[in-house]
């Protein structure tokens, strides 16, 4: 019954024709209405973005060190070609960044052939245990991550994405930093690595179950027993605005009419849609609604989707839908970038449905904050020749800061403050 409702099996052709005709009729009636809703700062959703870049950078470094056979690396191995994976500002040295968190990175020195002391880093026991938990969580949820990657490729018209494009989204999808070597080879019957005409390597989806071609919006409607709306394509998005947000009567009327327009699944053919209409725009909103649902924390940086226009068959300036629909998407301007957050996924600053890997990241962020504050209070020795890992690590409960809500000023005052200069350390 479920497959019939969603258009699989014998009725799939009928559903496509039905949607095609609906889309054609509405294309002739609905042009792209020139309405632009104002952007309003949302301090609550800004907190879910603050510090994300530092968290991601620290986690990549942890994963890199943990993957080394000796579980320790010299600084030049971390700040060379791998630096581009960290996303840190160019004026911030990797060593400076790592020294901010002495309860995560244990620094020691080894003389090179000329007798010069070279900084090396290894992981502290606390973060080693947390990394092992993260690996276990990934293994336990491997099918979930497989489905996320499959659905990402299913959104594309050719079931293909270049690896650099996937790399931009791998943190958001919850994939390990070395997923090409540690994850993809386990599914040779699902994925294939191919060479594109421009000589880039891409990932191609060669097989997938049909039941994955169901968007989250369709699934939510079915769970609410709205089968008729799914069949007819009458699906609307959940919309919410921050307190005090004022909508003009003209905007309210447009939004109500827009919600009643036909919904085109992001997994179905959209070549019949005219990009100059609101019907096409609703399809674009649906694509990004689904894409954000594929991420574990329902958000991603706007620049991460900049290379998806052609693979997703989107028109020029497709990211304008984020500004046009602030009730569905929130654009946070924290961290000197723009991050798109799916509003419906959050109850204030907490995810409505938290993925197990998100809980690991929350605990890791808590550990980073604790180390930064303790270092600021002078609880760690400045002499890096003494192994910082020998100091007792402070025990902590993840709940103590997982649910902590801070003001914008407080959030920027500690572990996400201005960058400090990198000081040269000497052995006494």
TrEMBL record:
Entry superkingdom: Eukaryota
Name the UniProt record assigns to this protein: Uncharacterized protein
Native species: Arctium lappa
